Amino acid sequence: MHWPMELLPLPLYAELGAHPLSGLLWTLLLLFLWYCYRVGSDPPAPGRAHPGKHKSSSRCSVTRASSCARAECGATSKVDTSDRGTPCISMETGEEEEQGRGYLTPVLSNALFPAQATASGRKLYAALQEYAKRYSWAGMGRIHKGLRDQAKLNDWSSIQKPHLFYLPDVPSIPFFPRDAHRHDIEVLEANYPIILEEFQTVYQRGIDPKLGWTGLGPKGQAVFSLYSAGVCIAENCRSCPCTYRTLLCLRTFISSNSLGAAGFWLLGPGATLGGVYGPTNTRLRCHLGVQTPPQCELVVGGEPQCWSQGHCLLVDDSFLHTVSHNGVPEDGPRVIFSVDLWHPNVAAAERQALDYIFCPEQ
């Protein structure tokens, strides 16, 4: 039987005279809006949590998502084993969080500070909490962990043992290559002639505490500081203006906290300074050789090195180190210009926090 076209029911888009593709798109849009409405309005099934709130174990991996959600992830996050499609993201092990050693501890569990911590350690931790309230806990995981573990570190027998603050997971070697701070080293070495000239001017005036010298020892030890514990010594800087301006040109000079210092260090013939650790592993000491007689030696972490006049050494003084000058009196003192630079593996956020925590007391 033949039906005329005018008797057949036409779709809405045909009646409106619209293009068939346009009508199809409108239909799909309405279906999508209806689906979104249903998904948003339906309550979650009992015993199921949002996938973004799952607590994961570091032993799980994305490639084993189904077995991880069924076994290991179920043990740590108390999630229904039916969530087999949720990948497990490795962030922090359950054991570390329970023992308060994880990097995310300050954010996730608010673990208490160790009871055996010293008074200075508690003071530093209080400063970290104050900094986090004012700014953020973001990026503070290593600092938090270091402050918590400092009391344990002081009891260890190790070749590297900073006595004030140890930042964990910082790559450390006794002597660093020049590339770690190439810019600052090149600036210091380029200005060596004027630094030497200004030192000789200060040295010829005499070594006297009234003239800005400190740390005087029985065998020619003396220090002429431009910065001491993060504080600029204005009178000494006026005596060495070009050297002071050179310090301001350095990109990584620690000038805003008590971990940083800069100045001329003298050691007389026959003197030995040994068996000491630096305060922290967050810095590197840059030694510019100003006057380097023969038979002068620096041993850091069991590795010996000698200074060279006009050249720099990058030293991690948190390692056990000794300094000796075995020359004769005619050789004169060994003189270096020492500058504290940030360790290259300390992040910018951590540097800002350490400036706040170790703010110099003026």
TrEMBL record:
It holds the Pfam family Asp_Arg_Hydrox. It comes from the Eukaryota. Keywords: Dioxygenase, Oxidoreductase. InterPro entries: Asp/Arg/Pro-Hydrxlase (IPR007803), Asp/Asn_beta-hydroxylase (IPR051821), IPNS-like_sf (IPR027443). GO terms for cellular component: membrane. Transmembrane segments: none annotated. Residues 189-344 form the Aspartyl/asparaginy/proline hydroxylase domain. Belongs to the aspartyl/asparaginyl beta-hydroxylase family. This is Aspartyl/asparaginy/proline hydroxylase domain-containing protein. It comes from Esox lucius. The gene is ASPHD2.
